[in-house]
User: What shape does this take?
Amino acid sequence: MTGSPGRWLVALPADRWPGVDPAGDGVVALTAEELTEAGRRGVHAAAFHEVVAGDARPAGSTVDVFLPAYRGKRLALLLGWLVAARLHRGGVRVAWHLDKRQGPDSVRRLLVEHGWRLDAGREGRGVVLTGEPAGPIAAPEPESFSAEVGDRRLDFAADFGVFSPGHVDEGTRLLLEVALRGPAAPVVADIGIGYGPLATGIVANGVAERAVGTDIDALALWLALRNADANGVPLSVECSADPGAVPPTPLTVCNVPTHIDAARSAALMTGLLARARSGRLLAVVHASLAERYARYFADAGLSPVRHPGPQHVVFDARG
Assistant: This one.
């Protein structure tokens, strides 16, 4: 697409894709799945963290925002700032599409308190809030915390539904302990980086010079980039479920998500084990699931060293 899209669609749900016009619409994606669907349909798309960085032009006529139900109402403030600062210009209509279970009245009050003019109307079984920002909108500050990681005290923003807000989780801490005892590498890949405690901690402690990372959550990638910058860590990221979306590295780390379905687990492990062929792989899982994940290593012909912790196990493999 050249120029501005006529309409930006933010956080587009699956049931709305049939109405998207590849010739005139653009999608602001919060997930890798949305980016994949946009590519499949030939629709221009940009991930959330890319739009924050300025990789988008204002809409020609309309911005439609579909507030996700699973991230909390504070996300409306962040998306409200994104729309006002990156996607909106005078005369552009903004519509917020909400399910009644999301509490549209409270979302409207929240947005109005933070500088929006909005009218409420019906939209099938849902509610649509229509209007525009009354003026400049301030970006909300994410919830944050500080933590001792190795020899450094690091600051992390962790908010808007990311994993383990408020503290570095036990599995990540165990993996960090193992990584910080190991040899240095020029670059570390953090697969499923989240808000970035692994990548940031490893580079900040001098075990790697820079980091690359992947995640399926573009909001998490925005936080990871913000945290890396705040702690003086060079980081580049890709919004993808594929561990191969970043180049081979001498060190790869992953806090393996164990809540995903079997097919996605298998695809993730296949990608991680492929990375182990060109370097060292450190992957942490809950101890109760260790034997399940050990089978992936065995099937790939790898015999990883295990580093047990109180509740987690780190698999340490080299190809």
About this structure: The mean pLDDT is 96. The CA atoms of residues 284 and 314 lie 4 Å apart.
